[in-house]
Amino acid sequence: MKLPDSIRDQFKTPLGILLPIGEDNKENIQKYLSKNSYVVTVGDQTTEKMINFGLTPSLQIIDGFEKRQKRDLPKLGNATELKIDNPAAEITLESIDLIKKAFTMTSPVRITVFGEEDLLVLPVCIHAPDNSVVLYGQPNEGLVLVEITTEIRNKAQTLLDLMN
């Protein structure tokens, strides 16, 4: 499924709460997490930030890039690593299947994407367990925190359906 240029702007609106740069600290993030939250990070900087806070995400999705610049991968720690090809501005069916599989595995799990991971927030929001909190970066703005609800699942599915 490719992201048509005509709907690109619809994907720039945060799906959840935006914690502006400077307010995306451990204390503010923890306000949205419970003891049994299933935490998902999409993006290298977001994943690294959470690991540095001592909050190991249950599922981490990274691609080794930040704002289109190659970077070092966040520390793997004790996560099980899976790998997938997912081209820029696309969501492959294989990526969706791997995300679903990752949710059935013992945490933590890391999916390393060859290509681009940004749009994988959509299938994550659709298939994540009920007690999930998804975190991803909003370039030059801050950190988006999405508490998974039926409303969020429906919104993510609607956006996914716009892709052909």
UniProtKB/TrEMBL annotation:
**Membrane spanning residue stretches:** none
Q: Which UniProt keywords apply?
A: Coenzyme A biosynthesis, GTP-binding, Kinase, Nucleotide-binding, Transferase
> InterPro entries attached here?
GTP-dep_dephospho-CoA_kin (IPR007164)
Q: What highest taxon heads this organism's lineage?
A: Archaea
GO BP, one annotated term:
coenzyme A biosynthetic process
Which top EC class applies here?
A: transferase
Residues reported in the UniProt entry to bind GTP = D44, D63, E117
Pathway listed: Cofactor biosynthesis; coenzyme A biosynthesis
One example of the protein's molecular function in GO is: GTP binding
Q: What is its EC number?
A: 2.7.1.237
Enzymatic reactions: 3'-dephospho-CoA + GTP = GDP + CoA + H(+)
Its biological purpose: Catalyzes the GTP-dependent phosphorylation of the 3'-hydroxyl group of dephosphocoenzyme A to form coenzyme A (CoA).
What protein family does this chain belong to?
Answer: Belongs to the GTP-dependent DPCK family.
Q: What is this protein called?
A: GTP-dependent dephospho-CoA kinase
